[in-house]
Design goal:
By secondary structure, the protein is an alpha/beta fold. It has a single domain, classed as 3-Layer(aba) Sandwich (Rossmann fold), CATH 3.40.50. Helices cover 43% and strands 13% of the residues. The protein is built from 6 helices and 5 strands, in the order αβαβαβαβααβ. A 3-stranded parallel β-sheet has the order 1-2-5. It has a two-stranded antiparallel sheet with strand order 3-4. Helix 2 links the parallel strand 1 and strand 2.
């Protein structure tokens, strides 16, 4: 996800407390703009590749803008999931305790989650984007918090491009 929001990856300005870029902007502006730029450069359908939450954001973009599907040759989603249903001590500690609670409190206090400094992620997380993703991970409806767009209903109407899902089965020993 680090390359698809303002301040992620090596983009400037860096994520800081006043950054208000969230999932809504990523889905409605950033991803369509990136897609259009790449499509315009090559004038042929492009291939989309995403890891983890990036796949949720890409799928959300196509659900919102199904006219883009004619310009997408294929999609590959690696480890993409909107929710985690299995229960284990590791899930309890990493997802329930840290990501859904502690990370949000830290991000609310600082304005962003300093994931790199804390060595809990490859990129810092914007508070607003983190909060919006936690709402969806909490199995809340796949509906945009800003304008009420119903991704779940729209996704059923999309003529999806060829899509590969790559996932691993977790084995706890």
């Amino acid at each position: 996800m680090s390359l698809i929001y303002a301040g992620g990856g090596q983009s400037l300005p860096l994520i800081k407390d006043d950054n208000q870029h969230g999932q809504f902007e990523t889905i409605t502006q950033t991803l369509p703009d990136i897609h259009q730029y790449i499509y315009d450069q090559h004038q042929q359908p492009v291939h989309w590749l995403a890891h983890s939450w990036g796949g949720v954001l890409l799928a959300s973009t196509l659900a919102r803008y199904p006219m883009l599907t004619s310009e997408v040759a294929s999609q590959i989603y690696i480890g993409t999931k909107r929710g985690v249903k299995s229960w284990s001590v590791e899930r309890l500690l990493k997802i329930e305790l840290f990501w859904k609670r502690s990370a949000l409190m830290i991000a609310r206090y600082k304005g962003y989650l300093p994931a790199q400094e804390m060595t809990v992620g490859s990129d810092n997380e914007i508070y607003r984007s983190l909060g919006e993703s936690v709402a969806w991970v909490n199995n809340k409806p796949w509906v945009d918090q800003h304008d009420g767009f119903d991704y779940q209903t729209q996704a059923k109407k999309v003529a999806w491009p060829v899509t590969w899902f790559i996932a691993a089965k977790m084995i706890w020993r």
